Amino acid sequence: MAEEAQLTVQTKREIIKGIETTMRSADGLITKPVIETHFGKEVWTHPLMEVLRTSECLCMKCDKLKPDQPDNCKIANELFEVCVKEDVALAVTRCPEWMKLRS
After folding, report:
1. C-alpha angle with apex 101: 100 to 102, nearest 5 degrees?
2. Contact at 8 Å (CB) between 62 and 53?
3. Rounded Cα distance, 60 and 76, in Å
């Protein structure tokens, strides 16, 4: 089973590499960053990653994410503090604590 998962990851990497090769601009990005206003401040935003962040971040699909509750995920709390302090947005793509969101 682990070998199948590795093959899937390798296949995804090859697909992404092909997309990057054909679509990458001179500045090295597939999608050009734009200035947007978030929480009253102008910031550079990567439009493609913004969409992926909101739809694919593991935190958003994790049963341990419980904002404003004492038993909220410790990792999520720490990342949120960084985001607030530095005016950045992060997407979690790996997590040792992830638990599938219960419906």
Report:
1. 110
2. no
3. 10
Backbone φ/ψ region at 68: left (φ over 0), alpha (ψ -120 to 50), beta: left
Q: Where are the domains of the chain?
A: 1-26, 31-103
Report the sign of the C-alpha dihedral through residues 93, 95, 98, 100, in that order: positive
Is 0.85 topped by the overall pTM? no
CA distances from residue 65 to 11, 25, 44, 57, 94 in whole angstroms, order as listed? 30, 36, 27, 12, 15
Query: Quick check: helix, strand or coil at residue 71?
Result: coil
pLDDT tens, residue order, the chain (103 aa): 444 555 677 777 776 776 666 666 667 777 888 999 998 999 999 988 888 888 899 999 999 999 999 999 999 999 999 999 999 999 999 999 999 998 7
Q: What is the CA radius of gyration of the chain?
A: 17
Residue with token string 């990851």: 9
CB 93 within 8 A of CB 62: no
